[in-house]
Amino acid sequence: MTYDVARVRATYPALAEGFAHLDGAAGTQAAGPVVDAVAGTLRRAVSNRSPAFEPGRRAGEIVAAARAAVADLVGGEPGGVVFGPSATALTYVVARTLAQSWRPGDEVVVSRLDHDANVRPWVQAAEAAGAIVRWAEFDPDSGDLPAKQYAELVGPRTRVVAVTAASNVTGAMPQVREIADLAHAAGALVHVDGVHATAHVPTDVRRLGADFYVTSAYKWSGPHLAAVIAEPARWEGLRPAKLIPSSDAVPERFESGTPSFELLAGVTAAVEHLAALPELAGGAPAAAGTTRRDRVVAGLTVAAAYEAELLERLLAGLAADPAVTVQPAPAQRCPTVSFRVRGESPAETAGRLGEQGICVFSGDYYAYEYFTATGLRDSGGAVRASIYHYNTVGEVDRLLAALEAGR
């Protein structure tokens, strides 16, 4: 496989500082074109959206371009892309809006594998409506989220099934389509947390069976902004709480206040960066006429293959260290690993590595239910290393050597 990581890294200005950023699951560094797009937008005359004058028209064009870019990223429709400040905020919007029609005795299904952003909004909405919360459990031995259990969890009163496309603890990737098929057969909607998965594998929301799919741009080289994607017709039937004079059109009715036009420009630039990855990494340019959607899929496919090689090296190195215990995960996974080092708290391990310029996270990373179920939360959770397409073999080896040298 052709993958010139040095050329890829050259597009990320922040990497010149020399830190080993093995913290992509918490947020990646911004690609250079994203930085340029944000700064360039702030330097131009851009007003609030208005058809009356050019700066106002520019704002509308920026929003439309960002919707089209995210649609190409995940295989959705531009008219179904809703933007917001974070995946958490957007999931609350969806949960509260859907819950308006719930009645006592209705049911929602959540998973203990998920980030709390795809758990608590649904639990709280259910409590407010008098609905019942049902829990899908992960297998503690394999790290998998067995899809078959959903046949027992989903029933005629199920309104929503919320499930992650990839665990932000172990990278485990549940069989979302199988889960979605069971949910849809019962008439339930499916809300998929794609925050961790989108950065690492090509996404097609229709193939996943996702009625709603949420993603955060700062996990895939972009700015701190998020989007939730659904079919425009799905949004049409929903009425969120909103200001009276604000737009009642879809998708604008779900976006409170004036958007950040500079960050939306950065979102478009981030998608373009992913689409350019094959050529950036030393491959042949895309054929004339190739759609951006096809280029994005190709870019993420190339990145996934490269990341898988680094993950294999990382896992082998951790397995060879008798002082390291790795959290289990199935073969189908994103390049994220959680572990603990004997004799150290996770915070101590992360702090020791941080002093050497190696950026990893410790704690529960908001995977509250996972670490509660494993009994690790009260003792500090775990240490997480997450690989992204700008990481190198040298950085993986640097982490492994630092783990061993610290004892």
TrEMBL record:
Domain of life: Bacteria
SUPFAM superfamilies named in the record: PLP-dependent transferases
Pfam families named among the record's database cross-references: Aminotran_5 (PF00266)
Domain Aminotransferase class V: 22-276, 299-399
The protein, known as: Cysteine desulfurase-like protein
Organism: Actinoplanes auranticolor
UniProt lineage: Bacteria, Bacillati, Actinomycetota, Actinomycetes, Micromonosporales
